[in-house]
Design goal:
Chain lengths: ~800, ~220
């Protein structure tokens, strides 16, 4: 019985291949966008974890001197004699002409077992690498991308593509030679299992418990959440397609279900068969989607890696690996999405009376009822959204607000469109126009899912492009203010810095030292800068709020300026005190930087950090070309030691553009999915339209005329949806700028409007709708008369 | 006895007028019976109750010796697979299955597929040249013949036909009915047919007339 029933159910798809394509394509695309984003996230997180394992020793405790100074080899030996199972690590920056590397020196023979075990899971090193490290011969292990940087160091380089880029592993003796750091140990890794009866740790040392997450993972969490949210939005758009396809297939097979039941198929068996059918579709489309997701991820990963490198300094390996976490999550989402989209159909089947027949009016009434329920759900979602906007806190609340807004608006769409079409019908003159609007209303239930997908995709495009363009405009202005020096110079040594400063002073060039020190505020990394009192800062610095006489007070050493993200994170305002003791004098905009920043007077900085000498300078001059030429003639400067303002701005803007390259790509993909939804929706409906169009044809309209009307109908519905998408998109932009960005990055941006962009998007949408409607219209225009006549001969 | 109905009643809304009242009838194996009556007299309701598609309000129905009132959905479905064939006025073919698959469907659901019998039925009913076609390519008369073949393919004890020729012209209707009677006789199947046509009813061994939900005029075999 099950075999015969399944064959009957599946025969529907064989006879309606477009519907089958709709379902599989919708689900596959939804899964692809979701799993693509997950693949990127998984790859990035794995890179962070791996980098963290290398630096922190796979979550082991780390022993350092309490005063923060390096340990000596003698101290290490003394601790080992006391019974402490510790292993030395030497860490430092290996500066090369074309870039820096983090060099990590380890002592393989004393490494705690936990660290060695981590090797098998892509941790520190594999057996072969360990052999190389232990066997002497100055072996270093690096990512292939970094191999070129290691040339000329007189070491044997072993490459490993799975290793985090930017970090190189070596035996501690090799590392000491390369870093010129004999008798220095940065920290000791503490094995979990320590011998019984071990002596207490001398007061001069302390053991730090590793943080549950690395700094970079914490800083980039919001970026990944943004990506996930976009993936989820794309997935939702795809699920709308699936919901539409499943619902339509249900309506078309309603008579088949009744016949099967009348012939003796019990309801529960039929439900099981339908669930099996949907599950098979989900697995097939899910597998396709995961494959497609891999392709998308591979295409987007370089941009994401560049974004993360530019924005956070996080190193991501450029190679994508098949990690179970994302392909399983892709299949899981495909199954879950199908379950969500198919549950309504299964419930309808379970409640379907065996004997009632399928009257168009009953279907219309059912659609009206469904639209009313959706409007009610939308009202509920808007209420929850309003509560979240007023009371919610945190990034998740921001995304929940977005979800409420978008889904609520999508649910409202059928009712709003129906009301507009009814109004248009009332104003219509002439029978054909009246029929046009009335028939358009009749088509709404069949097209509403595709139109909802279009609404969401367009709104997302408007919202995200408004945010990005607002950001770009603000960022450009910010760069003009912030990068006000004509030239930026980086000296190779402290001696060169002193010589250059003297040289420039003689020529009347104003030299503004740029000097900084890393520190932690509120448990997160931050930087403190010392600046010289100068009109450059007084006139240009992008202060958002400040105490009166802020620059005089800063110059007098009476406090500090902080960036917006630090102010928001710590709830600080001018007049408050930082945990480092300074009074906050002002808050400034600092876009594109996730870390906190503090600015103090140069004299205060020098007193606090006497060992740090300025090596970078901003140069104010009226003739930057001549100054640059003079500097290059007098000093042997590296290629990138002297940068002019325009180059720096161009570089910053290119980092910015790459930062949002992924967002733009996902935007385009989402809109494409919505366009596809519309095309498939129209194609599917085209096969059901003949009974409604044949009578109008018989009354005297040509097939060509009917086809043009069909085209106009699709365009009218797309125009209405596009117009409704504009306010929704702007609301989305506002939430992104005022809520999500503030929570994710710590800065709030002003919102600008870009009407020409919206118009361009509207024209694109209309073009997509036109192309989607063209094929069904052409098919209608070419429908042979006997097919239209058959509509009447089939009437009973 | 293939069908035994005793004091059957059906009320759709509590307190409302009964659609069927005190209906009793019996049918022997391979017997043919026509049920006539005006629209709304309860003919189709009676067929639905016998097929287990709807539940009786009171009274008893025995199909092939088994009391079916109070059957669950699964039990009713099993009874339809095992003992009953159904023919509807609106054919109710599966549009996405070929004629051959449509004919085999009921027998396959019942687990009693018999390729030789199905081929014989197709030959008798005149569908042999159309087996590979889909329902949309057939005329109304041909579609109803497919429905008849489907209902008889599982050799049911009882065939319930609800105005099976109501959509067909007179000569086609006569031809289709003759084919149905021939095929049912070869299968040893009893037929209970609802019809408005006195001409069609006269071809059955017995006729019953339903009026306002009650059997009004029992008649002897023609």
């Amino acid at each position: 019985m099950m075999g015969a029933g399944l064959r009957a159910l599946l025969s529907h798809w064989r006879r309606n291949p477009w519907q089958c394509v709709t379902l599989v394509a919708g689900l596959a695309l939804a899964t692809a966008l979701w799993s693509g984003v997950q693949a990127i996230n998984a790859e990035a997180r794995a890179s962070y974890d791996q980098a963290a394992d290398v630096v922190t020793g796979a979550g082991l405790g780390q022993l350092t001197r309490a005063d923060g100074a390096d340990l000596s080899v003698a101290e290490y030996v003394a601790l080992r004699r006391l019974g402490w199972q510790v292993s030395p690590v030497l860490e430092g920056r290996l500066t090369r002409d074309s870039g820096d590397l983090r060099l990590l020196g380890i002592e393989p023979l004393t490494l705690p077992a936990q660290t060695v075990e981590a090797a098998g899971a892509g941790g520190l090193f594999d057996d072969e690498e360990q052999e190389g490290l232990v066997g002497g011969g100055d072996v270093v292990v690096a990512n292939p991308e970094d191999a070129a940087l290691l040339e000329g160091l007189n070491v044997t380089v072993r490459t490993d593509a799975a290793r985090a880029p930017g970090t190189v592993l070596a035996d501690i003796a090799t590392a000491a030679r390369l870093l010129d750091a004999q008798d220095r140990i940065t920290r000791l890794l503490v094995a979990e299992a320590q011998p019984k009866g071990i002596g207490s740790l001398p007061d001069a040392y302390r053991i730090a418990t590793p943080a549950p997450q690395t700094d970079v993972a914490r800083l980039t969490a919001s970026f990944h959440l943004n990506l996930t949210a976009f993936g989820l939005l794309s997935f939702a758009v795809g699920i709308f397609i699936v919901y539409g396809a499943v619902g339509l297939a249900f309506e078309q097979r309603r008579a088949m279900f009744r016949t099967l039941r009348a012939l003796g198929m019990p309801l529960n068996r039929l439900l099981v068969l339908l669930a099996l059918e949907l599950g098979s579709f989900a697995l097939l489309a899910g597998a396709l989607g995961v494959g497609l997701g891999y392709v998308i991820a591979a295409a987007l990963l370089p941009d994401v890696a560049a974004t993360l490198r530019g924005l956070y300094g996080a190193q991501i390996t450029g190679q994508l690996q098949l990690r179970p976490v994302w392909w399983l999550s892709g299949l899981g989402m495909a199954l879950a999405g199908t379950a969500v989209a198919g549950t309504a159909a299964l419930i309808k089947l379970a409640r379907m009376p065996l004997l009632s027949f399928n009257h168009p009016r009953a279907m219309r009434m059912q659609a009206d009822r469904a639209a009313r329920w959706m409007a009610l759900a939308a009202a509920g979602l808007f209420a929850v959204g309003a509560a979240l906007a007023l009371l919610g806190q945190g990034l998740l609340a921001g995304f929940a607000l977005l979800a409420c807004l978008l889904i609520g608006a999508a649910f409202c769409l059928p009712l709003v469109l129906s009301a507009i079409l009814r109004l248009a019908g009332r104003g219509a003159r002439g029978p054909l126009t009246e029929w046009f609007w009335a028939d358009s209303r009749q088509q709404l239930p069949g097209l509403s899912m595709a139109l909802m997908a279009l609404l969401l995709a367009m709104a997302a495009n408007i919202g995200v492009s408004t945010m990005v363009s607002s950001f770009r405009l603000t960022f450009t202005g910010y760069l003009d203010q912030r990068l006000s020096s004509e030239l930026y110079l980086r000296a190779a040594t402290a001696q060169q810095a002193a010589e250059v400063t003297a040289f420039l002073d003689d020529r009347g060039v104003t030299v503004l030292p740029i000097v900084s020190q890393d520190l932690r505020i509120g448990g997160l990394p931050a930087e403190v800068f010392g600046i010289r009192d100068h009109a450059t800062y007084r006139e240009n610095w992008p202060l958002l709020e400040a105490v009166p006489g802020v620059w005089d007070q800063l110059a007098a050493g009476d406090g500090a300026l902080i960036n917006e993200q630090l102010a928001r994170r710590g709830g600080l305002a001018p007049g408050d005190r930082l945990e480092t003791g300074e009074r906050v004098l002002g808050v400034y905009g600092d876009y594109g930087n996730p870390a906190g920043q503090v600015i103090i007077a140069l004299a205060v900085f020098e007193a606090r950090y006497p060992g740090i000498e300025p090596r970078q300078f901003g140069l104010r001059t009226e003739d930057p070309g001549a100054v640059a030429e003079a500097l290059r003639e007098r000093f042997s400067l590296d290629g990138d030691a002297l940068i002019n303002q325009a180059d720096l701005k161009a570089f910053s803007l290119s980092v910015f553009e790459r930062t949002f390259a992924v967002t733009t790509a996902l935007n385009v993909l989402t809109l494409s999915v919505a366009g596809l939804a519309l095309l498939i929706g129209l194609l599917t409906l085209a096969s059901l339209r003949l009974p409604q169009l044949a009578p109008v044809w018989a009354l005297g309209l040509t097939r060509r005329h009917l086809a043009v009307l069909e085209l106009l109908r699709a365009l009218a519905l797309a125009v209405l949806t596009a117009v409704l998408a504009v306010p929704l998109g702007l609301a989305l932009a506002w939430v992104l700028l005022a809520v999500v960005n503030v929570e994710a990055f710590g800065w709030r941006l002003p919102m600008f409007l870009f009407p020409l962009d919206y118009l361009r998007l509207g024209v694109l949408t209309l073009l997509a709708a036109f192309l989607a409607a063209l094929w069904p219209a052409v098919r209608l225009a070419r429908t042979p008369p006997d097919r239209l006549l058959r509509v009447f001969s089939n009437e009973r | 006895m293939v069908l035994k109905i005793t004091n059957l009643a059906k009320v759709y809304t509590p307190g409302g007028a009964p659609v069927l009242r005190d209906v009793s009838l019996q049918m022997a194996a391979a017997e043919t019976l026509a049920l006539t009556g005006e629209s709304g007299s309860g003919k189709s309701t009676l067929l639905h109750l016998i097929a287990g598609l709807d539940a009786a309000s009171s009274g008893s129905i025995e199909v092939a010796g088994a009391e079916i009132t109070g059957y669950s959905d699964a039990q009713s479905a099993a009874m339809r697979r095992r003992d009953v064939g159904l023919i509807f006025q609106q054919f109710n073919l599966i549009p996405s299955l070929s004629v051959a698959r449509n004919i085999a469907l009921h027998a396959r659901l019942a687990g009693r597929e018999d390729a030789d019998w199905a081929a014989h039925l197709a030959e008798v009913i005149g569908l042999a040249p159309h087996l590979a076609k889909y329902p949309e390519a057939l005329s109304g008369g041909q579609q109803q013949r497919v429905a008849i073949a489907r209902a008889l393919a599982a050799r049911p004890r009882l065939l319930l036909a609800d105005e099976p020729t109501g959509n067909l012209d007179e000569s086609t209707a006569d031809a289709v009915l003759d084919l149905m009677l021939t095929a049912a006789s070869q299968a040893g199947t009893a037929i209970l047919m609802v019809t408005h046509s006195a001409r069609q009813a006269a071809k059955m061994q017995r006729q019953l007339h339903l009026s306002h939900g009650m059997i009004a005029r029992p008649e002897a075999a023609a």
